[in-house]
TrEMBL record:
Record keywords, A-Z: Hydrolase, Protease, Thiol protease
Pfam families named among the record's database cross-references: Peptidase_C48
This protein's GO CC annotations: nucleus
GO BP term, pick one: protein desumoylation
Source species taxonomy: Eukaryota, Metazoa, Chordata, Craniata, Vertebrata
Stored SUPFAM superfamilies: Cysteine proteinases (SSF54001)
Domain Ubiquitin-like protease family profile: 26-190
Family statement drawn from the similarity comment of this UniProt entry: Belongs to the peptidase C48 family.
Name this polypeptide is given: SENP2 protease
Length: 220
C-alpha cells in the first residue's frame, strides 16, 4: 500500500521539471516518470535509466556481465559511422561482456538489439514482429571495427549468427503504446538469462513497478 501511494504521488500533479531520481549521470523528472503512466510512450530518459539499473544489478554474483548502450548510440552510429562512437566504449571491453543491450528508437517505435558475446549471436527483438536484419548487420560491422580498433584483432564474422526474433518467439504488444515497456522487460529477462514469459496483460503492472524502481534506483 505504501508503494502504491508513492507510485501514485510520482504520477500525480506536481512540477514537471522536478527531479524524482538521479543516478548514473542521468536525471529523471516528474515529466519523464509520467511517460510510464497508462498508455504513454516511454522516453529516452526512462529507458536509459532502466538499462542502467539492469547493468547495476548485473554486478551482483550470478548475473551475466552486462553492458547497455544509451538510446543515443544507434542513431549516432548510423549518422556518423564507427568514428562517431569509437569513444563510447572508453574503459569498457565489449568482448569481455556476456551480453550487450542496444535499445533502438525507430521514430515512433522502440525495439531492442541483443549481442550475446558468449554465443556469438546478434538478435533483434521487436514487439510488433518487424524484421531488423539490417540493424543486426550494422551492429556486427560495428563489432568488427571495435575489435580491430581496440584489440587489433579481426572478428571472425562467419562464426556469428544474426536473427530477427519471429512474432511467435517473443511476446507481442496488442496496442500502439507499450513498445518501450516491452523493450525494458525483454532486457530484464535476457539480462538474467531467463526465458521471456510475460504478456501484454502484465504491462499496467510493469509500468507501475518501473516507477517505483526508478525512484528507488533499485530493481524489485
Amino acid at each position: 500500500q505504501a508503494m502504491e501511494k508513492e507510485i501514485s504521488a510520482a504520477l500525480g500533479k506536481g512540477e514537471p521539471g522536478e527531479i524524482l531520481s538521479s543516478a548514473f549521470k542521468l536525471k529523471v523528472t516528474r515529466e519523464d516518470i509520467c511517460t510510464l503512466h497508462h498508455l504513454q510512450w516511454l522516453n529516452d530518459e526512462v529507458i536509459n535509466f532502466y538499462m542502467n539499473l539492469l547493468v547495476e544489478r548485473s554486478k551482483s554474483e550470478g548475473y551475466p556481465a552486462l553492458h547497455a548502450f544509451s538510446t543515443f548510440f544507434y542513431p549516432k552510429l548510423l549518422s556518423g559511422g564507427y568514428q562517431a562512437v569509437r569513444r563510447w566504449t572508453r574503459g569498457v571491453d565489449l568482448f569481455k561482456q556476456d551480453l550487450i543491450l542496444v535499445p533502438i528508437h525507430l521514430r515512433v517505435h522502440w525495439t531492442l538489439l541483443v549481442i550475446d558475446v558468449r554465443k556469438k549471436t546478434i538478435k533483434y527483438f521487436d514487439s510488433l514482429g518487424q524484421k531488423g536484419d539490417d540493424i543486426c548487420k550494422t551492429l556486427l560491422q560495428y563489432l568488427q571495427e571495435e575489435s580491430k580498433e581496440k584489440r587489433n584483432l579481426e572478428l571472425p564474422t562467419s562464426e556469428w549468427t544474426l536473427h530477427s526474433m519471429n512474432p511467435w518467439e517473443i511476446p507481442q504488444q496488442t496496442n500502439v503504446s507499450d513498445c518501450g515497456v516491452f523493450v525494458c522487460k525483454y532486457a530484464d529477462s535476457i539480462s538474467r538469462d531467463k526465458p521471456i514469459t510475460f504478456t501484454q496483460e502484465h504491462m499496467p503492472y510493469f509500468r507501475r513497478k518501473m516507477v517505483w524502481e526508478i525512484i528507488h534506483q533499485q530493481l524489485l
